[in-house]
Write a structure and sequence with these properties.
Order of helices and strands: HHHHHHEEHHHHHHHHHHHEE
Number of strands: 4
Structural class: mainly alpha
Strand order of the largest sheet: 1-2
Largest sheet: 2 strands, antiparallel
Radius of gyration: 28 Å
Strand content: under 5%
Length: about 475
Amino acid sequence: MTAAARPYRRRAAPLKAKPAVSPVKGPAPLFAAEKTNPFKGVEWSIAYAAFLAYVFAITTYRIPVGTEAMGLALVALPLEKRGLRFPPVAFLACVLVAWSFLGWTTTDYPDVVFDTITEFAKVCAVIMVAVNVLTTRARLRAFLMMFLIGFMFYPARGAFLGWATGGNTIEGRAIWGGTYANPNDLAGLTILMLSIALGIFEVEKARWVRLITWSALILLPLIVILTQSRGAFIALIAILLIGGRKVLKNPKAMAMIAMMTVLVAIVAPKSTWSRFATVQDAMDTENIASNDEAGGSTLQRLEIWKVARTMIAENLLIGVGLGAYGSAHYIYAQRPNFNPTAMGKRDTHSTYLNLFAEIGLVGIGIFVALVFVTLRSGYRARKNLGSKGGPQAMQVFYLELGMYGFLVAGIWGSYGKLVPLYMHLALVTVGARLLAEDAEKARGGGPRRLQRGMFVRAPAPAPAPAPAPAPSGAPV
């Protein structure tokens, strides 16, 4: 039979071998949101549990075990499975404390400075413990959730109820206890917690977690407004301007901002808006005396800043000593070239003038380097991932955003010695490191090791040698 006469036959499709075992579902996407309980799957250790106890103690003031918990965390730190890390944020914090001790040797107020430095040295311990126990994403998730719950149930709830009942305020300004007894400090620390809540809202999808986070995103901005801190109010505006590009692309975020704006407009009293209205008047330094509401506090603050600038000029390199500003201000303000409104043991009401006056040019330079290096690490970790970062990268962005807002509020508030500031910098460092490790996993990189405070990829194993050729004449 010729080829043309052959009947057409459909070629049978090749049989596909069925797998002997059904394929196992792989792990969740690397950069996906978390739908599980944030406290599930946490690898517990003594140092990690002690660190949680420390943070809960200094946040809620309900269990006075902060010092003991931090001491236990430091003692148990070598028991962690991973090797100890010493990233730049920890190194620069230790340098800052060491420089402060150098100022103690030259200050006119050694007792005050020594006590302050002893207390301030906790920032090194907090940073070292934080970066060495928050080593996995599960641990970070549990810590942030516990931190938010503690803040919401104690400082946030207490400040709001105290303001609502009128039983615990300063001239109508919301406060709480401990560190939060100062309305400006309460506002600044609430801004940091707001950034943590935004990050949790981005990452966590469990229903009960979303409920708590929604409550936080409504209540925390309201507390900032109720403190009537003009610096914090400007910081909120700065946060919206810096993060506006990302917010405008998110309809949910826009709806949330609109909801918070309406709530604040309804709840905030008239006195709050009257105080915020003086922000523009307070900047009018030529007519400041004629501005009644702005004139009282702002004229005094400007005079205090004038004293601080004089103190800086006369103690440029080392400063007057950490924690000695109030004592030094009492002496300086008695000079006849200063207005009597600045007399007394005053605070600078400015993080940067306070640090500059107390630890000098070198000290403020170390502080700026500490903040800059930390924020740059978060930015670079996010940019290296590009659009693949997902919710985890947005969480780091919100942590950075909170730091930017806190730094803006620090122009009018003295935050340089607050431990939560340095703990937040440690959280940015941890978030950046976990993003870098996720990126390595996504690229198929091997394990990473620590070298001089920076994470580098471990060398790839050498390829297996090729098999030797078979001898001539050997059967194949």
